[in-house]
Specification:
The protein is mostly helical and 314 residues long. The chain has a single domain, classed as Growth Hormone, Chain: A, CATH 1.20.1250. It contains 13 helices and no strands. Helix 2 packs across helix 11. The radius of gyration is 20 Å and the shape is globular. The protein starts with 6 loop residues before the first helix and ends with a helix. 40% of the residues are buried.
Length: 314
Amino acid sequence: MRRFHYAYVVVAVTFLALLATSSVRGAPGVLIRPLEAEFGWDRASISAAVALSILTFGAGGIWAGSAAQRFGPRLVASLGVALVATGLAAVLTLGALWQLFLYWGVVVGLGTGAAGSVIGATIAHSWFRTHRGLIIGILGAANSMGQLLLIPAMAALTVLVGWRGAVVLLVAVSLGVLVPVVLFLRDRPADVGQRPYGEDAVVSVADRAADVRGTPLRVAIRSRDFWLLAGSFFICGYTSNGLIGTHLIPHAVDHGFTEVTAAGAMALMGAMNLVGSLASGWLTDRFDPRRLLATYYGLRALSLAALPVIFDVR
């Protein structure tokens, strides 16, 4: 009988952490209009705080990649989720615009970056010798699942009890996820007396070398591939988190859609992202990732080009 592998537990816990942080990243789309109404802040100022959050999200990811190698993903993910919960709790006390920049722009941004997709990639590399592309796809699907499950719930709460109800939901989810992260996440298979999933009893020298190999940032920035990937992820972040995740819901409401309907569109997008992430993980293990990435960006461009037409028709 095959022994149960703890990698399944690690993936499940990491999935929950990514689900929580991704739902937080999508929250500004729900919160912008209520913040405008209550505090009288203009959309540009609120968007600037969200932009700062995206910037610190990236900085948190850079730190998380380095820290996870030194201290392990368990500590980094725990600190990240704790930062998210702390920043969200502070958002409930908002009274001035500078506080939005501090609580959401800095604290929440760093926390979501630290407990974001970098941790998922680290887990896939540390715990799996095979099926890494599929595992990364599954963990990538957590981002879509958070959008699918929690964005409509936040929109409904905002309509029923106000925007603070939506933030309380996110605080509860973050604290709820923090418990299994602290209790059950482990840094590497050796911590539970196991080998990486899919590893044979005899491991090649090349595989052992790959496990400990790292590329310092000062070396990576000299590579063309690094800048191509960095540029593609910049475009991805700008069009998803920066454009759609932040502005689609309030812009749709401006054009006559209800908050719940707009949030439903975001949830549908999350559902399709879920399918795409899982399929992409499976495909990456079998086909050239460069061709796949080019296809994805082509489809993204077509969908964005269609948005103005949709709003004009409305």
